[in-house]
Amino acid sequence: MDTSDQEKIERRVFTSFFQGGFIEAFTGIFLLQLGFPALFSRSGFGDWQSALLTLPIALILLIVVFLVRRFVVIPRLGRVKFLPERRRKLSKLIIVPVLTLIAGAIVGYIFAENASLRHIFVGQIPFILLPIIVFSAAAYFLDMKRLYVYGAIVGLIFPLGKYLETVIVSRNTLPATILFTAFVFLGIAIVFLVAFLRKYQEPEV
Amino acid sequence: MKELENQGKKKTTDSLSEIMNIDRLVHSPARLSILTYLSVVEEGDAVYLLNQTGLTWGNLSANVTRLQEAGYIEVVKEFKEKKPHTLLKLTDKGRKAFQGYQNKMKGLLDIKGLFPGRDVE
After folding, report:
1. Which residues have C-beta within 8 Å of that of residue A22, sequence separation ≥ 6?
2. How many domains are there within chain B?
3. What is the mean pLDDT of chain B?
């Protein structure tokens, strides 16, 4: 067993702590945060109102996910303090929300200044690139390759929704596409959690 | 040519004699597994080791005790949320022993001719 083997074992151990559908639930909530404001704003609510209506839903779901992880998943997997190198890499994960905020602010500013951009293809590029960048950063810092795939899926939803709008003419086609994908991810998360609970019993000490 | 062959034979004999000096405490599959999983973290609890190694409570406990007695691992028993919680950590001595074992085994497995199809790099 050489260093690279040990690195593989360390990576496997680290990623095993994300079992139980945590990543899928998080992706689903991320998509809900995109889908609900789109749905609300198309139902006559203003942009700020739509965002404020979405926030409690996302917050409640995030709290549920973290509570399940804290009280159901971790006690079954055991508690571990990872090596300093891993903790350093993990601490850089803070770059992900910062990156999201900066990119969101830039996109918001560009759109506010050039309203015409919303109606042409160029306007879709940030919605494709933003999730890909955010998910890729998370994939790198968490050493989880499937996050690259999730980033690509999330990035493709917006153009897919826009395309479906041309096929199924309805003002709710785009939000419905995003929300459908969000619920698929949340469904997968529940399936993973059930499978996890079947595999790991609560230890009797 | 003959001298080279003799040198090779001597090297093989020396390396084979290393087998006798291998750390038997580390060499057991259960203990090797425990040390491996403790070497990739700073510290971990018994549940973590139980899941990763696939050992039973009894087996894990017996092997942990042996490693603890040898000073290879440190065991801290505490109460977390009114439940007993056992935290395990590889000591410097344990890390050295584990690395020494790895190097010795790697050296042994790299001997040309000992394992057909495996060449010295």
Report:
1. A65, A69, A73, A189
2. 1
3. 83
Category of B22 on φ-ψ map: left (φ > 0), alpha (ψ -120 to 50) or beta:
beta
Residue B98 lies in a domain: yes
User: Among all chains, which residue has been given the structure tokens 């090297």?
Assistant: B11
Q: Nearest CA to A50 among A67, A35, A65, A63?
A: A35
Q: Which residues of A touch B47 (CB under 8 A)?
A: 75-79, 203
Q: Would the pLDDT of B91 be above 70?
A: yes
ipTM above 0.85, yes or no: no
Best residue in B27, B38, B51 for a mutation probing chain A (most A CBs within 10 Å): B51
In the A/B pair of chains, how many CB contacts fall below 8 A? 62
Give B 12-71 residues with CB within 8 A of chain A: 36-37, 39-52
At residue A3, the pLDDT reads 63
Q: Is residue B76 part of a domain?
A: yes
Question: What percent of chain A shows pLDDT beyond 70?
Answer: 86
Provide the CATH number for the domain around residue B100. 1.10.10.10
- Within a domain: B16: no
CA of B6, closest CA in chain A: separation in Å? 29
Q: How confident is the model at residue B120 (pLDDT cuts 50, 70, 90)?
A: very low
Q: Inter-chain contact A9–B36, Cβ cutoff 8 Å? A: yes
Question: Domain range spanning residue B105?
Answer: 24-109
Contacts of B46 in chain A (CB under 8 A): 78, 205
Given CB atoms, is A6 within the 8 Å cutoff of chain B?
A: yes
From the list A1, A81, A205, the residue facing B42 with the nearest CB is: A81
Please calculate the CA angle B74-B79-B84 and round it to the nearest 5 degrees. Answer: 80
What pLDDT does B117 receive? 53
Q: What angle do CA B91, A7, A73 make, to 5 degrees?
A: 80
Question: Is pLDDT above 90 for A116?
Answer: no
